Amino acid sequence: MDTSISLVDNLIELNSPVIIASGTFGYDGYGRGYESYSPLSKIGAVIPKTFTYFAREGNQEPRWYPTSFRQGTEDGETIFLNSVGLTNPGIHKGVEYLNDLRPNMPTKLFASISGDSIEQFAEMASEIAKTECDGLELNLSCPNTDTGSMFSHDAELVRSVISAVTKEYKNPVIVKLSPNVPNIVTIAESAVAAGANALTVCNTMPAMKIDIKTHKPVLGNVLGGLSGISLKPIAIALIHQIKSCMNVPIIGVGGVFSAEDIMEYLLVGASAIQIGSANLISPQAPMKLQDDLVNFMKENNFESLRDIKTFNVSD
Q1: Which residues have CB under 8 Å from 101's CB, separation 6+?
Q2: Distance CA 90, CA 59 (A)
């Protein structure tokens, strides 16, 4: 079965649509939990945890809260709340890490950055340009301390950030968008007009849960991001909105736990998908999902992913 895809024509060719989402690469976001990187040759790409300009310790513990779709059933812990706070060693240590990782990585490697200002984004992009990463994902869904908003909530900020980044970084740029905006198409159009080669749709939804026994929020930071199976219908709808209005490569992310989930994203127009919550349950999930996708294609007489995409419901 041919699972190769062209994420960005003539720029990014992947041997699989399966990508490890930023922040979920091993137990620490940077590969811990993988005894060997060799199984990663099965999948399309890896995105280590986001780097910021300065090192960050992250939010107060607890930072994760796994729950389930229906308590007491076999669905298991497939919904997550998280509020990690972009814990990372900063961009300069990050570049060292990426340079050390690249020779051992048997698949595509994308960096991820998040800045507090347009200037920080530009300077970090310049640093990433010194690595041999295959692409750069811009995490625009974190607080912008200059304005008190998120970059991805403002079309003009999106345009300004991407314009600054693409002046410093010449490899493909992927822009990760937030789901909780009034009009995702307007944001997507600004991103593409400014030079984004692809979009990641979408980041987590703002969420909160109270422990009725302790009478307190379950997360140390009170508010967090909702991910897992409950995020998938939101991401599917957003991708459909974008693909119905414009032709841009999209990486779908949210609630991928089976080959059927991958199929749903491909059918709505995504070129690839990212594995997040499933990878937190088991670091082997991306490779298993790749195998499941191949088996699904065999059982349904799909020779390649191009056959699947002929049924795109967003065309």
Answers
A1: 31, 48, 109
A2: 16
- Assess if CATH 3.40.50.300 describes domain 5-309: no
Residues in the chain: 315
Q: Which of 133, 142, 202, 245 is catalytic?
A: 142
| Tokens of residue 147, six digits | 């304005």
Contacts of 93 (CB under 8 A, 6+ apart): 55
The yes-or-no answer on residue 142 being catalytic is yes
Q: DSSP label at 92?
A: H
Q: In terms of C-beta density within 10 A (0-12 exposed, 13-18 middle, 19 or more buried), how is residue 87 classed?
A: middle
Check residue 53 and give left, alpha or beta (phi > 0: left; psi -120 to 50: alpha): alpha
Residue 142 confidence (pLDDT): 60
Burial of 199 (0-12, 13-18, 19+ CB in 10 A): buried
Outline where DSSP puts E strands in 88-172: 108-113, 135-139, 143-144, 149-150
- The alpha-carbon radius of gyration of the chain (Å, integer) is 18
Contact 274, 253 (CB under 8 A): yes
Burial class (CB in 10 A: 0-12, 13-18, 19+), 55: middle
Q: Which two tokens stand for residue 151?
A: 């970059």
- Chunked into runs of 10 residues, the chain (315 residues) has average pLDDT values of 89 95 91 90 97 92 75 58 91 97 96 94 98 97 50 93 98 96 96 98 92 94 90 97 96 96 96 94 94 96 89 83
Taking the domains of the chain in order of start, what are their residue ranges?
Answer: 5-309
Nearest Cα neighbor of 235 from 180, 197, 173, 296 is 180
pLDDT of residue 146: 42
pLDDT for 273 equals 98
**Residue 83: what pLDDT?**
87
